[in-house]
Write a structure and sequence with these properties.
27 helices; tt1808, chain A; 714 residues; 3 domains; 6-stranded mixed sheet; alpha/beta; Rossmann fold; 7-stranded mixed sheet; 21 strands
């Protein structure tokens, strides 16, 4: 890392012996020697100090930090910056700050490299005098030429869900975006100080990552459970005080813990717990208390009672967060994992999207489960503390509300929107959150249920109801977003009608479609394993720009009927990948439908691809891929020129969206793999079609003809 920053062996001084400037030992006043691990030089001066620690040592607080501080202030060294690394984490301090000015997990070093160079590269220091560096000035220079409107589309990002303690293991939720994907989108489409907004905030990944990257964040969700999770996670706490509060509760719990039947009955009459809350239809039991054994109810109610007696609000919130995530496991719907320990399962509401009693109950130790969850929350708090603390918490706004009416947000005040909205009838969030909301005393009103953008649920909402609420939300997003800014809309639905709804509503609101990107979202869900043909494992991120003169998607006349387009696309994907998954086929059809303007046709005739895939192709259960049937040829017998035209227009539209003008060779190399059914076209055939729909740019680059020229052509 030091070499990559620009230091050579001459610049790196290892284990220099220093005499402690203040301490001496014994009556003889013997000198105490201190030995910094690394001193980094710029010219003839020391620029900063780096000390190595063991992986289990704390580098954020305590003696280790004080020790390296003593090196930095030594008369022979006198550096403004000092750093510690334990192999897992890196922390950089400045002499005048108590908290790290930069902190990250070493596995995330790539994401933080720009900041690291800004602080510590040799060019950040002045030679010949005491090192001086003005961070703000350099930070501004880095973003002086930040061009909001011409940001590049990101390629698919490898998912690293478990890599951030601030998210992994903190609290379960029905859907959760991969934190590193969200982070990369925030870094790409906004700059420090900007306001990042998520109108369907969920578990709070967008807000937290906005704050962790020096942005401001606004989180809105209709579900009070969402508000509770996020508000409790970001609430600043003093870790030693939090540990003391935990110890108080632990000591009292051990004295009062109900174990016998008589003690359990007494606890149930003394400590409040939720009763009489009706569960959604499809649940195995009728009311919330039936989801728990009497022993679970007694112990959980006692823990909650002890937490509620804590006087400090933020400590109380943090402890209640640990309590709430404990409920996820301490109930009769807890299903343990088949492939890991019995403590690695989850609640049926998250796994099956209904309250299903486990056929094989798992009797987890209640206090041990709470204690384990507490320490995960502590780790999360430590992870966010350098960026989310008393000094920065004002950068966060968390509201309970509806995306259909963003009354708290001023018009044209938001710099970037990243959101993962509900997907039709997939998850009735408010219905399924009743267990947590009831235990936490969080109210869900009838108006909340009426405003929830879902299909079905206890309110029996129709597809039209869902469409109307999503449309209003997109309109509101347009209102609050600044001009020349972006919205990234995450979606994973098989029905093209919903995609068509999003695009049509966004265009009607004034957005310009700016490209869709395929994006995995981590491990395959249990629902996906249960229903491989009806549930998508991945998702598309549709990007929009708010510009003053938006371009509408041109409905291309391809000379093919929709059935031919669907088969041609499916066979093309199979040819390209030598077998294709449901996700690959669905994503390709949706993206082509988006960019060539035939989603409206897809939505009418192909709301579900399952029937055509199962009837026309073979399915390999091991690879989860669809294949051309054995001894069968590709079915589509579309005129060669039409097939070439279809793939040329699709490829050139995508290049146009990405502000690229490909060469003829690049065009041929990209579309030939898709044309392996029937006769493979000669280069001249491709060139003839290309000359009809495209035009030269420069010597050997191509782009689509103008919309007016295309309309005349068709």
């Amino acid at each position: 890392m030091l070499y990559e920053l620009g230091y050579t062996n001459i610049d790196i001084v290892r284990s220099k012996m220093l005499q402690h400037p203040f301490l001496k030992i014994g009556s003889q006043k013997r000198q105490v020697n201190i030995v910094p691990d690394y001193l980094l030089k710029v010219g003839d001066n020391y620029a900063w100090v780096l000390d190595a620690k063991a992986p289990d040592e704390d580098i954020k607080t305590g003696y280790n930090v004080e020790q390296v501080f003593s090196y930095a202030i030594h008369p022979e060294i006198r550096t403004r910056y000092f750093a510690l690394c334990n192999g897992r984490e890196f922390a950089l301090y400045r002499q005048d700050t108590e908290r790290p000015v930069l902190f990250f997990n070493m596995q995330d070093v790539g994401s933080y490299w720009g900041n690291l160079e800004t602080y510590l590269s040799p060019g950040s220091f002045q030679e010949g005098k005491k090192p001086v560096f003005e961070l703000v000035e350099k930070y501004r220079k880095k973003y002086d030429n930040f061009d909001y409107i011409n940001r590049p589309l990101l390629d698919e990002i490898p998912v690293r869900k478990r890599a951030a303690k601030r998210h992994f293991g903190v609290h379960g939720y029905f859907t959760k975006q991969a934190w590193n994907v969200v982070r990369e989108y925030i870094l790409n489409f906004s700059k420090p100080g900007d306001i990042v907004f998520d109108p369907f905030g969920g578990s709070g990944v967008t807000l937290v990552e906005a704050l962790m990257t020096d942005r401001q964040g606004i989180h809105i969700d209709l579900n009070p459970m969402s508000i509770f999770i996020v508000d409790s996670l970001i609430a600043p706490v003093n870790i030693p005080e939090l540990n003391n509060a935990f110890d108080r509760i632990k000591n009292r719990f051990q004295k009062l813990k109900p174990e016998t039947k008589e003690e359990i009955d007494k606890a149930l009459s003394k400590y409040p717990y939720p009763q009489g809350y009706t569960l959604p239809k499809g649940s195995d039991v009728e009311t919330i208390e039936q989801l728990f054994t009497n022993e679970q109810l007694a112990n959980l109610s006692l823990i909650k009672y002890l937490i509620k007696n804590e006087k400090n609000e933020n400590l109380r919130k943090t402890l209640l967060l640990a309590f709430s995530t404990t409920i996820t496991k301490i109930n009769r719907t807890y299903h343990n994992s088949d492939y890991a320990s019995e403590n690695a399962g989850d609640c049926a509401a998250f796994r099956y999207y209904r309250y299903r009693i486990a056929t094989e109950p798992v009797n987890l130790n209640i206090w041990d489960t709470f204690e384990g969850k507490f320490w995960k929350i502590v780790n999360a708090k430590k992870d966010i503390a350098p960026k989310i603390n008393e000094d920065t918490i004002s950068n966060a706004q968390v509201y309970k509300g509806t995306a259909t009416n963003l009354k708290e947000i001023k018009t044209e005040s938001i710099d970037y929107i990243y959101t993962d909205p509900p997907y039709g009838s997939k998850i009735p969030y408010l219905d399924l959150s009743v267990m947590w909301n009831a235990w936490l005393g969080l109210e869900v009103t009838e108006q909340d249920r009426e405003l929830e953008a879902i299909e079905g649920g206890e309110m029996h909402k129709t597809k039209d109801d869902y469409s109307d609420l999503i449309s209003k939300s997109i309109m509101e997003c347009y209102r609050v977003l600044k001009f020349d800014r972006w919205m990234s809309f995450v979606f994973a639905h098989k029905d093209p009608e919903f995609w068509h709804l999003i695009i049509e509503t966004a265009e009607r609101a004034g957005f310009e479609y700016a490209g869709a990107v395929k994006q995995a979202n981590g491990q395959t869900s249990f629902k996906k394993r249960q229903n491989p043909f009806t549930v998508l494992a991945g998702q598309l991120i549709i990007n929009f720009k708010k510009v003053r003169k938006p371009k509408a998607i041109l409905r291309a006349n391809l000379g093919m009927n929709i059935g031919d387009i669907v088969l041609e696309t499916i066979e093309g994907v199979i040819a390209k990948h030598n077998g294709a998954t449901l996700e690959q086929i669905n994503d390709e059809l949706i993206i082509k439908g988006l960019e060539l303007g035939f989603l409206d046709l897809l939505k009418k005739e192909y709301s579900d691809l399952t029937s055509i895939l199962m009837s026309e192709f073979d399915y390999n259960t091991e690879t989860e891929q669809f294949m051309i049937r054995k001894n069968m040829k590709f079915k589509t017998s579309i005129d060669l020129n039409l097939r070439v035209k279809y793939y040329l227009m699709s490829y050139l539209r995508r290049q146009e969206i990405e502000n690229k003008t490909p060469t003829f060779d690049e065009i041929v190399l990209n579309i030939l793999p898709l044309l392996r059914n029937g006769t493979t076209p000669e280069h001249q055939t491709i060139l003839n079609v290309l000359e009809a729909i495209g035009e030269h740019i420069g010597k050997d680059r191509w782009k689509l003809k103008s919309e007016e020229a295309q309309l005349k052509l068709f």
